[in-house]
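EI: anyone free to look at a 564-residue chain?
SC: sure, send it
EI:
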Amino acid sequence: MSIYIAITFSPVQSFIEKSRKLRDLFGASLILSHLSRRLIDILIPDDQNKDDLVISPGLPTVEKGLPNRILLKDVFPPETSDSEIDNQIKTALITAWGIILDICKDWIQTNLSEFAPYHWDKEWRKWQKCTWEIFWGQGDSIPIAMQQLEQRKLRRNWTGINWIGESSSLTGTDAIAWQGLGAEDRNAQFINYSREDREIQAFYQELAWILDGKKTQDKRQSEGKYIAPNERLNIPELVKRLVTLPELATSIQMETLDSGFQDIDRKPTQTTPGQWTGWFMGDGDKVGDKLVEIADQQGESGIKAFTKALRKWGKEFEAKFPKDKGRVIYAGGDDFLGILYSPDSAHPIPPLTALDWLISLPEQWQQHQRDITLSVGFVWVAGTVPQRDVLQHCREAETQAKRLGRNRVTIRVVFNSGQYVQWTCPWHYLEILKQYRDRDDKTYSNWQQSGQQSEQEPNWNHVYNDLLQLKSRHGFGLCVRDKQALSELGQEIMENRQAVLEFFDIYFPGQKERIEQNEKKEQDKTKKIIVMEENAKLADQADAMIRWISDLITVGWYFLRNGE
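SC: here you go
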């Protein structure tokens, strides 16, 4: 009888989200994939057949995009105790992570030798032991191993690292990495902050200058390709930057960034406005349930085929992504993150181009030919919103799409102030945004059919201003949000819903009939009116339709007008 073991480690999302530069995101992704591969390699030596022992993920020897959820078979002898298994898995991950840390630390000490002596070895060892948590589950069937893994994930045992002095300028947590970190004579009561600040400043100016290839005479004027001279990073943040240096990645034996890699120029300058960019985060719906179903019905061969198909899709999705439209940061099968942006900030990507790509995404997704749907959070964001906030918005938008029924996309437009508007819809309704037709535009060409943006863009001002007028007068019940009041209005809300559809049809010709036909099909199946958001918490389904149309117009106005 075979024994299966499911393994994962964390934190993953927070490790990725603690980012300021695009380089941080790629560095984090490279590290996570490398640790997954090394974990497999250490637990399954080269003299054993990985194809037989690795059930999931598929393509385990392809490092790029390798997920951190691993399912193995017959890796440990049956008599191995839980404590021995736990120790071997933890040792494997800590060893792999320690090699990355050691190579980065040694590179700094070699290239910045004038700052010796370094007092930080103890701090690097702390991060080796305390960065990751390991979780695993074991059983004589795949579902049992996966279930035990999920149960153990509920028992967190995370250890924080104390520090004295100033903290990272990126996240505001954990100590700044510099040569004096960990010195025994440092005392919180007697730290000379002015002196330490000067030493830290000199350290980071030198580090930034060397990483940029010593291209400037004045070290304070470094380009900051890898690290800006005024940045102050903790050890994991510093490592995420350093692993994107080709020579270090080669030493670690991990994937490298392509030679033409550049960070996104999003922020405004004296000559160019801030670039609006589109960030997308996607995830297959109920993949865990699907894996359990496949395990029950098809066994390990089905799991292998399923995960291999998803990994192949992720690999091709990243490879074929048009470079003139942006980049895919990671694609680990059913889980991916990417950005739509222009390499030339003076000519940002048009909103309609971003929308066209988003509309095409479900078709791309179906190329893996597996029966699972997709939920995506798409964030169209202004140039001065911090990257770590953008990633949080992506996560929230994706969660919203799943919460409202899955197989959906949530479009969230985020402004420089941090405020946002959003709209969630099933994928087959997304193209409605391209059906807008201004009632007063007599010269408007049918750009939505040609796929080309016309010289005169549709004027969303009219429909948006009409919506604002209706809201100010409580038209169609747009500002009524009290649950009890809605339940008492009854027939009036249904009449408001019909009136909103009539209003909607003026600017989106034919869409009222389409919505009603789709609802009738559902009504014939369930004997009740079904609205697109299917959210039981809403006080009334008719009010859901009213809000859905209101959100569509609001997002369309801000998104397709480039947020101006």
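EI: The CA atoms of residues 482 and 488 lie 10 Å apart.
SC: 👍
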